[in-house]
Predict the structure.
Amino acid sequence: MSFRKAVNQLDFLLIVSALLLVMTGLLAAYSLSLGDGESSLYMRQLSRVGIAFFICIFFLYIDYEILTYYSAVFYAFLLILLLGVLLFGTEINGSRSWLALGEFRMQPSEPGKIVFILFFAGMLGQLKKDYLSYAKMAQCTALGLLPVGLILLQGDLGTAVMYLPILAGMLWMSGVRIKVMLIILLCLLLVAPAGWMMLKDYQKLRIKTVLNPELDPQGIGYQTRQSLIAMGSGGFFGKGIGQGLHARLGFVPESHTDFIFTLLVEETGFLGALFVLTLYLIMLWRLLEISRNSRNRSGLLITTGVICFFFSHLIINIGMATGILPAIGIPLPLLSYGGSSLMASAAALGLAINVNIRRFANT
Amino acid sequence: MEFNQDNKIFFTRLRILQVVILIVFIGFSLRVWQITVARYAEYAELAERNQLRRINVLAPRGLLLDREGRILADNVNSFSLVIYRNKSDCVECTLDDLCRELDFDRSEFSAILEENKSVPSFRPVTLSERLTMQQVSWVLSRYREYPELDITEAPIRHYRYSTLASHVIGYVGRISPQELKTPSYPNPKPGHHVGKDGIEKTYNTRLMGRDGLRTVLVDSVGRIQKELRFKEPRKGSDITLSIDLDLQRIAEESLGERSGAIVALDPVSGEILALASTPGFDPNNFSAGISRKKWEDLIQDPGKPLLNRAISSVFSPGSIFKPMLAAAGLESGIREENTPAFCGGAITLYGRPFRCTSSHGEVRLKEAIQHSCNIYFYLLGQELGIDRIAEYSRKFGLGSPTGIDLPNEVSGLVPTREWKRQALGEPWYAGETISVAIGQGRINATPIQLARAIGIIATGKIPPLHILKTTGPITENSQVGDAEFAPEHLEAVRKAMWSVVNEWGTGWRAMVPGFDVCGKTGTAQLIGREVREKLTDEAKERFTHNAWFTGFAPLENPEIVVTVIVQSGGGGSTGAAPLAGRLLKTYYQKSRGIEPEPVNQEPGNEESVPEPAAASAMENTEGTQDQ
């Protein structure tokens, strides 16, 4: 495939909206560095964007068929990495999910999501039938839960949870019957109380405080409440870039990562929120279009995985910031400050573009 | 496209996903609208409240000055250690660390926390005041380790002469929870220092001034980011006392280690020139929050150092009551100035022997006072009767507070038949009148009352006593105006008192050449003679006589009244008169410009004050305070 041809196939709306989101994230990082008088936050994020760009290129350059072909190898490698983290990992913020190699630190569970997508696209993409067999489904579920289990062992509930929508979405798109979905849902409901028992006290409290934010205004409910206050005080137009005192002064924790949406709304108001939400919507819309137009089943499954990856992160993160869902430390894709999440998002976008530019290629 | 057409199920499911995505996005948009637009006002107000903190800036108290403008009390900036209990998981651990590292008293801290249990935990609690530089820098350098600790700067009271005039000045202390509820303090806030005794208490409102207010932007852990507004605190008004520091010092030095009191006042204006009570205390100990130990030491001290003996203790006046009774005799018409009485050294009245100091022979009013003849007054008292004695005593202001502007003044007792029936349910015995006639028995008074009574004799007017030096009239004082005694009667008593000092009477030791001192000594028995004789020598030592001297000078146009009591000081002639003499001499020399006694102008007690950290200490640190 020639370069010119590839460029002609690019979905510009997808790329532009993604770039605008990354730039918004940079703006937020910049806004935060304004208050500190040091630009390190902004500069570091800028360099990460550069790396992310090359990762994106890498994932769209190699034909996704090749990537899925070798995905079992990636999957095995992921399992080894996760085991390695479990054994030699560094603990940050209470979860042992970081692998430190000298100065360089990474969280294998973030790029793991991409491997996950490729692996299941490889496994399920070869199927020909409309509906998924029980055996295949059981096999996929088992293989899917294996890395999830390892990440849970690291103590990183948030990240582990984020694998499930990807798995569920891809299984669904591979043709799990409605009947089976309902049965699984029922089972989940039955297991829920047991799961509740297994949760740690602070996790239980987080869920409780969503139902009743006044329960613990100084503790867990505090974060959510402060987030709401910060956003609410932004009003329709926001307080202006660099004026988001509330998020800036530390009332809202992690305002550059997990609560970036809060900072954004405080500074740019309802309009800013609408802008960002619209960008995400356009992105997902284009991804759905790519999925629909993909050349084959594995392409469709890859984009489905990417959609589920973005969509689930959006729901959890914005749901948390707006006080609808319990506080789970999940970054907002493309916007949040931080390397691992940005790299994973870039790779996911690269895969989607990969599928898109090869939609007319011969099978 | 072949692939998609073959798999209609993908199409359907993608559609479903699309719809779900759309619904979620609409839902989020509505939610954000609800937060940012619908509930904007509510959240905006909460945000404002979250970020702004109003910090009360304590106003320095007004200065206390003596009559010549010398500063008795001012303020020094001190750094206090406060703790925000809500910011620590383990307050006790922090306190343990503090005590280990900085040598604080752990039990003291526990007591403070206990006291502030009901205070909301986000309010700072002051753990210690008057920190040293070392302590301040220790805390500030561990800002991250102990975010719950903070240093605040506040003016605290400093008494330049420590114990000098401690009972006049009183002391200040942190407002107590009970005081917060009383209306006697204006806009009381926890942490305020208020006057607890003395002038500090009486004029607390005037001295306190108005607090300032800093409005600051804080971050989530309460660190100050920026100052938005600053309303300067307004210092309290300065108060000039009528006290003369030189006289006060002489008075306290004269009393020395002995318990007692000295009052010196201007009988015309009513200004108190000196008011000493010993033992005293150092009010500086209270300024920085007195420790439990020191407080207990003070209140358990048998010498009762906190007690202002000049106004809050009552004593039998003894013989210094005699000039008053003499005036009563003249005023009632029972005695003329020259009516004689015969003193044989003892007399039997109502079947009981009553003794005199010696055998004075024929005495008239002058000799009776000059040599303090008991017999003359036994007979006079007997004729007057207790109720008339009481009537005239009241005219001299006994039995009711003088209304001086100091707290805790007591009224003393002028007994009557009626009083005894009501208070004790017993009839008055005639023999008791005889004791009262020489200032013994049931009658008692405070030194300040007796000083004022002498003032009345000296001037014929009731001096309006006050410590606040003012040019205007003092309104709140009780009796002001002319005394109800004929001038010639008081004149006779004055002449007799002159002879007590200047014609080798009992008070000659108070003589100041050139100053016509008039006076009267007194030796008041603490217990009855019969009981005393049964006591051991040691007990006799303890329960001996109170020595009194009271007088004024000069005879014409009196300027000063002095009353001295030395508890267990023996005879008034030797125990009290010399002290009065010394004070009067100082006054005389000072007022006449005769080689003033050398007096240290600057206090020499700097070492006793714990080194307060200098304000510059803050500049090197994180700049959390900017005053």
Q: What stands out?
A: Chain A is about 70% helix and 5% strand. The longest helix of chain A spans residues 260-292. The first strand of chain A starts at residue 90 and ends at 92.
